[in-house]
Every structure is written in C-alpha cells, then in structure tokens.
Amino acid sequence: MCLSIPVRFFQFCYSLRRCGARIAIFFLVSIGLILAISTQAQNSNFRKKKISIETPLTVYFIDVEGGQSTLFVTPSHQSLLVDTGWPDHAGRDAARILAVAKLAGLDHIDYLLITHFHIDHVGGVPNLAQKIPIGTYIDHGVNRETGNAATQQAWENYQKVLAHSHARHILAKPGESIPLAGVTATIISADGNLIDTPLPGAGEPNSYCKDSPARSPDETENARSVGIVLQYDKARLVDLGDLTWDKEMELMCPVNKLGPMDVYIVSHHGTAISGSPALVDGIAPRVAIMDNGENKGGSPSAWEIIEKSLRLKGLWQLHFSTQGGSQHNVTADRIANLQGGSDGNYIRLSLYPDGAVTVFNSRLAGQAAERTIRP
Q1: Is 12's pLDDT higher than 90?
Q2: Domain range holding 36?
C-alpha cells in the first residue's frame, strides 16, 4: 500500500507531463499558424500597395528646338537617351539634356541611341559626351546620305567621339532588344530594315492601309531611322525616329506588325512625310507627344491624322507650330513652349504598368501642369 502511492503519483505526474507536452506543442503550432497567416496577410497587403504605387517608366521630352532628344528612365533607374539635338547654339542642347538628366537624378547615361545621322539628331553628341559619361552607344552603322555635306560632317564628328570613347558600341538590328531591366525595348527598324514578324499580340490585317496611298522610297537617312517599341508590363510606347511614310507602309501593311500603343512619339516632328494613317490609326494611340519646333514640324496634314485617331485622349506639343496656325495647334495648356518662346520647357510623361499615363508640362504650375489618362 505504501509502495503503491508513490507509484501512482509517479504515473499521474508522468501523464501530466505528457499531457502538458501535448498542450505545449498544440500551443506552439497554433501560434505558428497565427503568425504565418498574419505574415501572409501583411505580404498580400504589401503587394497590393506596391502595385498601386508602382514606379512608372518616365519619359522626358527635351526641347532641342525642332530636333529630337528623349530621355527614358526605367523603374530600375536605368537610362536610355534617344538622340541629342543640334551641335551649335553655344552647346544649348547638350546643356538642356544635362539639366533634365540631373533633374531625373542621373549622373550618367546608360544607353545613347542615335536614330539616324541627320544633324538635328546626332549633332549634339560631341558636346554631350564632354558633360556626362555615356555607357553604350547604339546606332545603325554607316551614314547612307553621303551627298549631304552637313549629314556627312555630323556622322564624322560622331565617329570621332566613338573612336576616343571607352564605351560599348551596339549596331542596331531589327528584332533585337536593348537590355533594360523590367522594360522590354525591341528594335523595330534600323538602316532601312524592318522586323520580319509581328510583335506578340500584333499581326492582324490593317484596314487603314487603304487610306494611305503609296509613296516613292525615301533615299535619305530618315528611312534608315532606328525605331523602338518599349513595353512595361501592359503599357506600350513606340518611337520610330524620322522613319518615313514608305517604310511605315512596309511595317504596317498588309498586316499590322506593331499592334495598339498607349503612347506614340510622333514620327519626324510631325512633318507630312511621315505619320501615315496606316501607322497612326493602326497603332491607335491614347496619348501622342510631338517633339516639333516652332518653325519645324507640326504640319497641318500630319496633325489632323493624329487628332482624328479614334482612341486618342490627348496630344501634346513641345512648341506652338507656325505651320499649324490657329487651326492646327493644341490648346495652350498642352504646349510646352508658346509662340515666340525659346525657354527650353520640357514635357514629362509617366507610363504605368496598367497603361495609365500622366503628362506634365513644365511651363505650367500646380494642377494645370499635369493630366492623367486612365486605360
């Protein structure tokens, strides 16, 4: 009897310890599950917040008075500069590019793409290369317009910069990509050649080809332009440089090789030798930006094709166009530099993954400076 009491007590304690261990294990597992569910919920909320405030692809349209210079800054803060404007005017264009680059938080340019070798596109390279480091140059190769003295000189000056630079040099070829993290940048045209097959999601017959009469082949550097399409998730943007009407017809007819675009960087400053209905109506942009000068580009016929495009929600211009007059210019709030103005105001475009677009006019202040267009 006396011996049985300690034995029973031991058995009771042992059972209690086993039960306690089970309770402890159950308690720990429960706590673990609660923490896991809480963490998952927090991560889910974080993902939702991250998507809702996603960093945009930012595009700066720099005023180089009728030339082109367009700076792309990706969400990962890589930079692609397309063209550099003119060489003269006491280094004006290089200074304006540098000012915008600093505004974007850049201390170098990762990629400089030269669409073609006309002086208003490649002329500013020597001045710019002295002001900011450039990692990689991209172009179509050799000047094909050797009979034009200014173009040949601009190309030779550019070759001198390449020869003395330690930067990479890429020869642009249609179908290849520019290595930008998070953004697909596909080369569409280069040196007169075009992509052979439609981009993903494109390839449908283009009904607007019938509205675009055939034109004679262009023999200048314009037709050699390097053109690109940038895709950021669902959002799409096209910049074809000064690609001409005849090349647009090859690209867009009989099938549309590009598909719809959210943003159209107006070809050739809005001159009438580019911007066919086959292109403009075929890509059906929601937003268009025209990098014209006061006395260059913005021709009435090209302007009308853009303005009448079915999906267009907004057209912006870098300058008031003298050619356009009172009937073929957008309202003042969508012009960066008004008539008679040479202030170097820029336009900034923010392109979001879902296709939303915000356009900022640096000439204006407050709410009037910015407009958002939803998909």
Answers
A1: no
A2: 1-53
